[in-house]
Fold each of these.
Amino acid sequence: MGDSAMHLYDMVVVGGGPAGYTAALYAARAGLDVVVLERMAPGGQAALTAWIDNYPGFPEGIDGVTLGQNLRAQAERFGVKTVLTAVKALRLAGERKEADTDEGTFSGRTLVFAAGARHRELGLPGEKTLTGRGVSYCAACDGQFFRGKTAVVVGGGNSAAGDALSLSKLCRKVIVIHRRDTLRAEKRLAESAEKAENLSFCWNSTVSGLLGDDRLTGVRVKNLLTGAETELACDALFVSIGMAPETELLRGQLHLDKDGYIPAEESTVTEIPGVFAAGDVRTKALRQIVTAAADGASAARSAEKYLESH
């Protein structure tokens, strides 16, 4: 298990996004010994966002990578330890919470689960094979590779509208495919998308198939009203149909709602004493960076109260 298992932290944080690092920051400032376990890079999904305009305190906005780095640096200034590693298993039932990783087992008196969420897939044949070969889930990451080309965006929410607008500045043509007849995105985003000159829409439609063997060459589009299918040539397909919570490690240990989220209240307290759920993994109405940060602060305070009583 390694030396990491010999050390008992006051708090182990699973996930280094806004929720996880805010929990770590608040806990460390309260004098707790904290480690953050993050499998990719500081910032979580926020780090994959090209530009963030709706996080308070940044009047000109901030890019996601910089925000993630700032979150880590601020927490580490107060003594938080960061370990970049994937968590493979959790043991939560006892007073000693344990997280198994490639870097050993990390143990804590409390554990904040802030693993976030991942992009949902279409579930089509060939989707995994073509991922990185024309199929993408992050316009901010991959849009630059399709400058001057034709891109398709699937979805109708804020993410899809934002991706479509971002791509319209790079691509020759952008086509949004949505299963409804209007966008679900907030009014400002929807209006901006609909006004973009090189952006068009396929309403009441879904992507029913992917074309291309070694690289995406187009998509098959199904009209949900008529059932008719047509083929649409494109260089890229950006899937923006929402997120799925990263809660697989908790199955069998914590109760999850029908969508896989953790039904914890604003306090972030879960049914297991000493375990707290923060950020996008928690059942709630709004999942934004600012609400994730709020969850992190609540989780740290709830953890303090738990430790005081134990």
Note: The longest strand covers residues 104-113.
Amino acid sequence: MTYADLMAILSHSVLPASLVAIMTAMGLSLTAADFRQVFRNKRALIFGVCSMLIVPPLIGLTLALTVAPTPALAVGFVLLATTPGGMLSNLFTDMAKGDLALSMSMTLILSMTYILLVPFYAHFALLHFMGLEADVNVPLGSFFWDIFSITVLPAAAGFALRALRPNIAGTVRKYLKKAATIVLFTAFGFILFDQMPVLRENLGALFWITVILNLIMICVVMLIVRFAGFARRENIAIGIEHLMRQEGTAIFIAVSIVGNNEMSLPMIMNTPVALCFVLLFVTIARRGERGRVAPAAVA
């Protein structure tokens, strides 16, 4: 087997399969009660969803137009900025003592909305930055189906299994998610190795652009929510949702659907950068919570 064959298997089999497994594991953790949460906290929910659909894409597009080193990386930053909140946003919201129900509701709605919007985002980015209308055939219908089948269908299957066989679902989810995550990050490692020359050439720019993306995004969002008058727990959920992103889905689009490994580098770079921002955010939020509890206890 040649190196090219290995990368082809990785792009078209291993990466999609690991993402399907992770989305199935997410579905296994959902219940009908989770979906009913969508109808609670409507004001904060509507704000959080609208903000995610407007603020990150605008910031990502601005950075792609102004400072992205190459056209492929510009497309990558657009894909990164338009992805919904990541699978870990609910976990970190819980750790930060935020509104977990609001976080889960935003993740669910944004993930479904993403399926409808991402083909248009990707088409625009490809045509604008790379002029690939004649060279790369990415039909909108098949593009939509590829993403739908890799995200919504596995999650729906997991949800159905959880509803029908909750005991089996709990056992399967634990091992499935762990194995799929290991495979997914192994795939990221191979892609990173394959694109090492491009990464070396643009490492500084990629790092600072992802830092700026996350910094501007969290500053803008927290400034808005402060004046919107939401509760502290709601602010935490909305803030973390903007930081944690579904890089795996965006990498799948870049590598498996579009067929350009270079486009995946912004997503790979963002993973550790966003994690640092989220951990700092969680630490500050938890300290703030202790500061609120202490005076109350004294009183």
Note: The radius of gyration is 19 Å.
Amino acid sequence: MLNKYDDYLIHVQWMTRALELAQAAADAGEIPVGAVIIDSTGNLLAQGENRKERDKDPTAHAEILALRTAAITLQNWHLNECTLYVTLEPCPMCAGGIVQARLGRLIYGVDDTKTGAVRTVINIPDSAASNHRLQIIGGILESACRQQLQAWFATKRHQRK
């Protein structure tokens, strides 16, 4: 059994990988969001990065892409024993996908004060509309996640001038 410090180190490890994926998305012109899904034994099942612009797909969020890949890998859409790490609090679409996948645990980096749908603006997982409850932990590598997003948006604003 792991203690809280060991859990935190594992969270940092996987959130660091999600940050790397977010940077790859940023480098490709996408909003920098990265996601990683691990199984109950800590093995990597899936990863994703925002691809809306590249794929011309409004659903190509990092979380949705990772959920799809994890379900294919497991040959099961029930992801009860899985943990999703994502750099930004999921939006309503992604929160809905997380609930529909019956995800066991969600760990995210920074709150999304505009479209956050698991704690900040609305709370889909705990709402009456949700038929599934999951553990949610926010704030893992929060500063790094926030800085990455703020730097990307600052660069975009500067390019528009």
Note: The mean pLDDT is 96.
Amino acid sequence: MSLLDYFRKQRKSTASVARERLQILVAHDRLRSSGPDYLPQLQQEILAVIRKYVEIGDDDVRVQLDQQGNTSVLELNVTLPDEK
């Protein structure tokens, strides 16, 4: 291997790049769909309750269910706007 080969970028074919992106999307979709059926509805209801007090967008509330051994952990992330 020469010194110049070290600095050259190997170009990936567009097919391999597209395949990698598709694998990422499929893995992300599997993670999202592996949760219980009530999670999307729970997220919408939490969003509705928070909107009674603060204006937030649809993407500002995330609900995720994680398995840690024999325990299920419900994680709720809410991004609130800055106070004015």
Note: Strands lie at 61-68, 71-78.
